[in-house]
Design goal:
disordered N terminus; alpha+beta; 233 residues; Porin; 2 helices
């Protein structure tokens, strides 16, 4: 745990140092100041989750309905899913911008098929559990113009996350659905590059990391690799 925390602290320190260097660096070209909007699409990759935690939760849920599994087959879906979002920002200085965005980081899927005893009957039961992660971000970008067309940037900020859990459970006779949600605040950092064209348009390429994303189940780092499109005003 200490080594993992030290690694995260070191990563954030490097990002903050990069933002400082970009802020004080001389601009290679005249940057357009003012408002811009952007959208992105990519892939969110979670650190591997512990399936045993999901199995234990599934057993507890079955117990609330008076069902006791005798045999179980369960699976945890891929650790990656589609990510997308949109952003609005303001370029304060050639080397500094502030940005607000909305991010949808996909979902993690768990499935459980069990056979056991409910009251006096032997029955098959099934659970489908989906964990969704999304939210709004606030971040600062340190920007380094590299040429007339290219810029590099470093990002540091926070994600105000919404963690949603959707449960679908079926037995031999009926089906039930339940939802739960919680909120959390996570640190994020990233590195990217922008290619400008036609004066007001740009293509973005970015890597971000959200630290300890989620709440309770599957609370792990999430890496996001994306491409995007932006328009300056």
């Amino acid at each position: 745990m200490i080594s993992r925390l030290s690694a995260r602290t070191g990563f954030l320190a490097r990002i903050c140092a990069a933002i400082f260097i970009l802020f004080v660096a001389q601009a290679a070209c005249a940057a357009e100041l003012g408002f811009y909007v952007a959208g992105f699409y990519g892939e969110a990759m979670r650190e591997p989750a512990d399936k045993a935690q999901f199995d234990a939760l599934a057993t507890d849920i079955y117990a609330q309905f008076g069902f006791t599994p005798a045999s179980t087959v369960s699976s945890l879906g891929d650790d990656s899913d589609t990510a997308f979002g949109m952003a609005g920002g303001y370029r304060l200085l050639p080397n500094l911008a502030l940005e607000v965005s909305y991010m949808d980081l996909g979902e993690l899927r768990y499935r459980n098929d069990s056979f056991g005893t409910h009251i006096d009957h032997q029955e098959p039961w099934r659970q489908k559990l989906d964990l969704k992660l999304k939210g709004f971000t606030l971040s600062a970008l340190g920007v380094l113009p590299l040429s007339y067309r290219w810029e590099a940037y470093a990002r540091a900020g926070v994600l105000f996350a919404s963690n949603e859990l959707n449960l679908h459970i079926t037995d031999f006779f009926s089906a039930r659905d339940a939802e739960a949600s919680s909120s959390s605040t996570e640190l994020l950092a990233g590195l990217g590059a922008t290619f400008s064209f036609a004066e007001v348009y740009g293509a973005r390429f970015e890597y971000q990391r959200i630290f300890d994303a989620g709440d309770g189940l599957a609370e792990n780092d999430v890496d996001v690799v994306s491409i995007g499109f932006m328009v300056s005003f």
